[in-house]
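During the reporting period the student researcher (J.K.) took over the structure-prediction task from the postdoctoral fellow and processed the backlog of single-chain submissions. One of the processed entries is reproduced below for the supervisory committee.
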Amino acid sequence: MARYIFITGGVVSSLGKGLASAALGALLQARGFSVRLRKLDPYLNVDPGTMSPFEHGEVFVTDDGAETDLDLGHYERFTGVAARKTDSISSGRIYSNVLEKERRGDYLGKTIQVVPHVTNEIKDFLRIGGDEVDFMLCEIGGTVGDIEGLPFFEAIRQFIHERPRGECILMHLTLLPYLAASGELKTKPTQHSVKELQSIGLAPDVLVCRSEHAIPEREREKIALFCNVRKEAVIPAYDLASIYEAPLAYHGEGLDQAVLDAFQISPAPRPDLRKWEDVVDRIRNVDGAANIAIVGKYTQLEDAYKSIKEALVHGGMANRVKVNVSWVDAEVFDTEDAAPHLEGFHAILVPGGFGERGTEGKIKAAEFARTRNIPYLGICLGMQMAVIEAARNVAGVARAGSEEFDHEKGEKRFEPVVYHLKEWVQGNHVVERKLGDDKGGTMRLGAYNATLTPGSRVADVYGTTKIEERHRHRYEVDIRYREKLETCGLAFSGMSPDGRLPEIVEWKDHPWFIGVQFHPELKSKPFDPHPLFRDFVRAAVETSRLV
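J.K. obtained the following structure tokens:
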């Protein structure tokens, strides 16, 4: 039976609960324990799939097709444990489940209330897979004191109360603000945050305190005394040069030991941290640099491309080089020359996205990379833009475009080289979609197989001709243009097993130009970089040395 660790946050949002949870999971793994991490989000959206990237950052997709919070990306990158649908839930999903049961008559005509019906639904979610691992780490989104988070906190209180003593602990993250005028770290916000927790029947066992300055011993003792936490369980969390330093940093401050002490696990297995020592060594000891441009439309919020940014870092670690990422707004050169904005970069990456805004700039980025022999990686929409560029400028399809843009505009302007995907094979059945379907959860989502052409660049990169990658798209390159494009040199080097859906394209006469319909960044990890990103960064380094 799993032991449960609940992770909450106080004082302010964006303290790094997801990172702390992921780092703790990695440390428990280093001591030989099995872990699974979960996220409970208080927002009323059923999932983040229909939310703007400006609202919530990227949508992380699991193998089984769940659209989840970006924190699940942290969990996978740090632990290597593949997330599932049952590792993410929101208030919206909880209430939907409760209302569906009420409509079916499952509650036998009773009055439906937050307690017990909503809280019971949350507890049922927490119990899933409770017999599969040693530790279940559950992060609660938002901040203590938020109205929308109250049902989750009440459910946790009940869950802890109902289980045998010593099977659940609470880890609480807070902020110690620094007042420059007085030269002091202030503990009062942390005290109030813990008091808020205590008022709803929860008491933290471990306190993780974010601070930009060293926390004096006297302040730790004060926090321990007034928050009713052992001094050894007050863990400082300082800013780091890289997020991948977090496991070693937290271990150095005693986080994993404090957690094991709270569970009274003694003696605890000694940690094997060689994997993370190697990761940190690869970050700190580099030989050269590669300047890579990410040409996107959500560049004002880096979290919109979180997994891509991290996958590039992993590619840099694999090659022992520093990857300098520059965010380039595709909209800037929608109507002007791309060259002034893209010259000087060693490689160009065009990520996924939705809608027509910025797409002409992305097409120009693909053209720039193709004609200048600069390494190019197009992901999802980035692949589609590369195909449209090839169709327009090489294959003679002057009006080539995407059906998505015509649907958005409400008029027919383009010859649809990219069309609305209406059916695909998933397992043993055919999935069908119509244009007017609901937006949420209706895309081609999750892991699908692809077959690579023997002798192609991607087959060399992967070292195999059979791969499985995660998808998230509603539009697809039309296979009917394959012959025309391949005649011009754009090879369709990866296809779905039934041969109907293009998965990968590459220019035969280009040093490194690959477009993929899937999202390889979702499977990359610091200790196991994705092959595409590893080789993409290698190609960028080669370009840098030619300059």
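The committee noted the following: The radius of gyration is 25 Å.
J.K. will present the remaining backlog at the next meeting.
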